[in-house]
Amino acid sequence: MTGIASHEQISALIRHRRSIKPVDMDATRSVERELLSHVLEDATWAPTHGLTEPWKFIVHQGASRQRLAEAMQKVYRQTTPAHEFREDKMKKMGENPLLSAVVIAAVMERRGGDKIPEIEEIEAVACALQNLQLSASAAGLACYWSSPPLLGTPAFAEWLQIGAEDRCVGLIYLGWPRVGLNWPRSVRKPVETKTLWRDD
Ligand SMILES: Cc1cc2nc3c(=O)[nH]c(=O)nc-3n(C[C@H](O)[C@H](O)[C@H](O)COP(=O)(O)O)c2cc1C
Fold first, then answer.
1. Is 52 in the pocket of ligand 1 (CB under 6 A)?
2. By alpha-carbon position, which residue is closest to atom 20 of ligand 1?
3. Spatial separation of the C-alpha atoms in residues 70 and 60, rounded to whole Å
4. Cα–Cα distance between 162 and 54 in angstroms, integer?
5. Residue 131 in contact with ligand 1 by CB distance below 6 A
6. Cα of 147 to ligand 1 centre, how many Å?
């Protein structure tokens, strides 16, 4: 089909995508609204049971990143038992949103009623986030999916102003890679170790 990337190109993109942490992003370089909208629209072409499209993207840029950082630190302080509290995590929560140009709170909005099980709505959002990451990678952006436990707390949900049945499934940090970054490499186990063939 014309206009569709080849199988080789798609495989190369899938293998090229890496988690790149905010510390390796260029916070001084903004991401154009048009590009962000393009990437978000690609996210929405994910499969969705019953076409509920259960995703909501709360996009933090500019000063709202500071408010997000402060909210995370406050909720972390309030909800973490003393023996689990880590000063280094607290510090990172304050720094990370300012190190990347964009932080997207990816929310599963419960829209399917009882018809669609909650897990399937979360799975659909995960598919959307993979689309988002692949699209961002194709554009040359760095991205990183972070899921600190505080995302699941009522206090953070209240701060995000999401419904009681909704769930923030991740923070997606996005930005241009910092100058001189060596694009990270990764490994995967051979697929044969994860495959059971039943041919007869
Ligand atoms: C649902 C989900 C949640 C994740 N949460 C975190 C996280 O909280 N912290 C983190 O360092 N990486 C997180 N990651 C990213 C993984 O660490 C990363 O995908 C893994 O190390 C493989 O590296 P790669 O993405 O470069 O292939 C998450 C990934 C997924 C799919």
1. no
2. 19
3. 13
4. 13
5. no
6. 8
Per-residue pLDDT of the chain (200 residues; tens, 9 = 90+): 567 899 999 999 999 999 999 999 999 999 999 999 999 999 999 999 999 999 999 999 999 999 999 999 999 999 999 999 999 999 999 999 999 999 999 999 998 778 899 999 999 999 999 999 999 999 999 999 999 999 999 999 999 999 999 999 999 999 999 999 999 999 999 999 999 999 98
Atom of ligand 1 nearest to the CA of 184: 26
Q: Whose CA is nearest to atom 15 of ligand 1?
A: 145
In a domain, 192, yes or no: no
Q: Whose CA is nearest to atom 18 of ligand 1?
A: 19
Q: How many distinct structural domains can be found in the chain?
A: 1
Residue nearest to atom 13 of ligand 1 (CA): 146
Which ligand 1 atom is the nearest neighbour of the CA of 126?
1
Q: What's the helix, strand, coil split of the chain in %, to 5?
A: 50, 15, 35
List the structure tokens of 153: 């707390």
Token pair of 152 as six digits: 């699941």
Residues 6+ apart with CB under 8 A from 87: none
**Host domain of residue 91:** 22-179
CATH number at residue 168: 3.40.109.10
